[in-house]
Design a protein that fits this description.
The chain has about 450 residues and is of the alpha+beta class. About 30% of the residues lie in helices and about 20% in strands.
Length: about 450
């Protein structure tokens, strides 16, 4: 949904949580921690198949807190036959919120994701827009899920791109976002298509989209909130954090407890946060780990190192009259970033309730089928020069391997007067250049 993404990030300043990691399987495993702060296992028994189970009314849904605080509330999702709390669970005994769409969807006839001439997603967006407009002078909390279009094929999501942009433009221009914290998110990545059997699919399943919009006046009045949200964009975050953040709307705490499972996103998330500390089981944890490239993989090491050398020479080519050609002297350090072993071996949940993970004896994907990150330190001549670079290796549609330097190459040793011939005129390239007029000075080794 490129149009929606651009509007969210470029037009209204929504922040995308790039490290947003799920904590359980399927929609329930993603949504329940967000709405209750707990895993389904930690809540009272509500599964249909158990004699002692009760209705999900007993769950501590966060909308109950908003209702007590005087907010109008809404919970809406399409596709009632597989809805979050009715497919496996007993559902609600009483209407959970002021506005609840389940009975509506049970009565209407949906054909091809349309209700008459109107797409289902447009019906949902109009319903939400009406809710926001009608309660524009009253505090309100709404939670909406759209399932039908993408449940079997995530690619169909593009069909609602323009409609979602239209919705966002309308509520923004009408001032309905002036007092609204808006989160647009996905519960999880693809679970039923071929991509799920790939490493890319495994990571996408664990790292769904999550964006948060904060009104302009809050950014100005409480700049630390927006600063922290943006900072947390690159930190490990979870549905538990969304729950804590929602709670803080009612009772803001600028300090918080950094040791608890769920953290308020209005505060800074620790850079050192781990999956275990965030309540993410190893098989759901998308955090990657660095491993040394084995000594036996000399071809792999040399290939990555030569990518760095080629880039260094490309940088000095415009100054070839002054700067010497760079060659590889040795590889000092080479490591690659890979997913943890439980992601690679994870197959699917093995019980009907999607609680228990199932693992294969061996990894069912090849880590080389997707992008890999390498970090390498090379020693070059003349010099010596020590350079550190991060390289992304990927494969195009023809399975041709591509290499890309992801950031500026770092010089990690002093270069002294090696670039003396150009340092004043071209300071940006100085760290890469060894002046030819010094080649016979005895300094190049």
């Amino acid at each position: 949904m490129p149009n929606t993404y651009r509007y969210l990030t470029e037009k209204i300043g929504s922040v995308v949580l790039k490290g947003y990691n799920i904590v359980g399987d399927a929609t329930n495993g993603a949504v329940t921690p967000m709405l209750t702060g707990k895993h389904e296992k930690e809540l009272p028994e509500t599964r249909r198949s158990f004699a002692n189970s009760t209705y999900v009314d007993v769950y501590p849904f966060v909308w109950k807190d908003f209702k007590k605080a005087g907010y109008a509330t809404l919970f809406a999702e399409d596709t009632p036959e597989i809805s979050t709390y009715n497919w496996r669970l007993k559902g609600f005994d009483h209407r959970p919120t002021d506005h609840y769409m389940r009975t509506f969807w049970q009565e209407v006839n949906i054909e091809g994701q349309c209700l008459g001439p109107k797409p289902v997603h447009k019906v949902l967006l109009d319903y939400l827009q009406d809710f926001m407009f009608d309660y524009r002078k009253v505090p309100h909390f709404g939670f909406m899920l759209y399932t039908g279009l993408t449940h079997a094929d995530i690619n169909k999501l593009s069909l609602m791109d323009d409609a979602l942009v239209t919705f966002l433009k309308k509520v923004h221009s009408d001032g309905l976002l002036n007092n609204t914290l808006l989160a647009i998110f996905s519960d999880h990545g693809a679970r039923y298509t071929k991509i799920r059997a790939t490493l890319q699919g495994k990571l996408e399943e664990r790292l769904p989209f999550m964006s948060i919009y904060i009104p302009e006046w809050i950014r100005k009045k409480h700049p630390s909130i927006y600063k922290n949200i943006r900072l947390n964009s690159d930190r490990l975050t979870t549905p538990f954090d969304i729950h804590e953040t929602l709670k803080s709307v009612l009772n803001y705490n600028s300090v918080g407890n950094k040791n608890q499972r769920g953290l308020n996103l209005f505060n800074e998330i620790p850079l050192t946060r781990s999956c275990s500390g965030a309540g993410v089981a190893p098989h759901w944890c998308a955090c990657l780990k660095w491993e040394m490239v084995p000594d036996g993989n000399q071809l792999e090491i040399n290939t990555i190192a030569e990518v760095v050398i080629e880039e260094l020479n490309r940088l000095v080519v415009p100054f070839i009259e002054h700067c010497a050609h760079i060659v590889l002297k040795s590889v000092k350090f080479a490591q690659r970033m890979i997913p943890n072993s439980e992601i690679l071996k994870f197959d699917k949940t093995v019980d009907f309730d999607q609680r228990e993970p199932g693992f294969l004896k061996e990894a069912n994907v090849d880590v080389h089928e997707m992008s890999l990150l390498y970090q390498v330190t090379v020693e070059t001549a003349p010099g010596p020069g020590l350079f550190e670079a991060t390289i992304k290796m990927s494969h195009d549609e023809k399975n041709i391997t591509r290499y890309e330097i992801t950031e500026e190459i770092s010089r990690i040793n002093l270069y002294g007067d090696q670039p003396k011939c150009i340092v004043n005129k071209y300071p940006k390239v100085a760290k890469y250049c060894y002046c030819k007029n010094q080649l016979n000075s005895g300094r190049d080794q």
